[in-house]
Amino acid sequence: SASNLRSFARYLTLLQTASQKAFADAPVGYDRTVWDTWQISIDAATAEAPLAAKLMGILGWLAPEACQLTWLTDLAADPYLDAAPDDIIEALEQLDRYSLIATNGTTVDTHRVVQAASRRQSGPEGGSFAVTMLHHQRPSAPASEVATWPVLTLLAPHVEHAVQYQAGLPDRAADLWWLLDDCATARQYGGDPIGAVAVFETARMLAEQHFGDLHANTLAARGNLANSYRSAGRIPEAIILQEQVLADRVSVSGDHHRNTLGARGSLASSYWSAGRIPEAIILQEQVLADSMNVFGDLHPETLTIRANLALSYWSADRIPEAITLQEQVLADSMNVFGDLHPDTLTARASLAASYWSAALANWQR
Length: 365
Prior knowledge:
Layout: H1 2-23, H2 30-48, H3 52-59, E1 67-68, H4 69-74, H5 85-97, E2 101-103, E3 107-110, H6 112-136, H7 149-163, H8 173-189, H9 193-211, H10 216-231, H11 235-253, H12 258-273, H13 277-294, H14 300-315, H15 319-336, H16 342-364
Antiparallel strand pairs: 1-3, 2-3
Helix pairs in contact: 1-2, 2-5, 2-6, 3-6, 6-7, 7-8, 8-9, 8-10, 9-10, 10-11, 11-12, 12-13, 13-14, 14-15, 15-16
């Protein structure tokens, strides 16, 4: 088309006038060589749309494929961009024309080689905005909830990519850790325990590096990793890590803090999974007593702990004690949640199973 001919002619002019500047100095590295090679195209796109170079820098910190265009336009008014959404779209179209990116109007893809050079040219300012952009999309609901999974699935590759270069963004470590933890949690609850383990391991390393050994985020990262080990069937590793987390929680927060109760309950669950039922029961009885003091008798946490203890009683063939607890859990669940709440239905089913086990035991006698 005529517009393409004009663009090509203009590109040749830019090539002739910029080549001496681009290649006058000896290359100092591969990234510099790549950047010099593409600088003419970037300058051309920026001449048409001033945001082009800045957007290339932002995209350099993200995964190569499927950056959502709306992530950029949602923050067009941010001081770093200080633009209108249409300005973002125009700049992306110019970058696409010069084959620096590929966009279909919904997502943006960037070649890995150009991306690496762009990231280094943009510096931490571009990386910091990229993290801001990702964090802006972070769901407000817990990552364990199904409704958050589509968004977190889109965010995950970009978060994991940004974390690879987090050494250049020390001020954004906390935001990256929260995003990484959310993405790992969504994988675990979404049925990918193996994938979740890998992301939780990265989250733990990030927390240990930036927060310190006994920081609350570090202990949470270790606890989440241990839970993912258990979900992936790696029970011995889960127990080793959970025993360490529990000791650290007691040291940092005290024996009756809610975080300590959570760590003790998680360790009990792993003991149960390993068939160490008596040890699980000892911990769960302690957790139940503490939970009643900390949260109250009808708090959802207390009901869950009581139900878990009943399950351990049932596993230990202490059926009458299990039934007593389960009857209490069912009555309390109906009172707190209502008759048709999922937790109430679960409590009713568990009690029915125990009634059946007790009847079977009596019949066998």
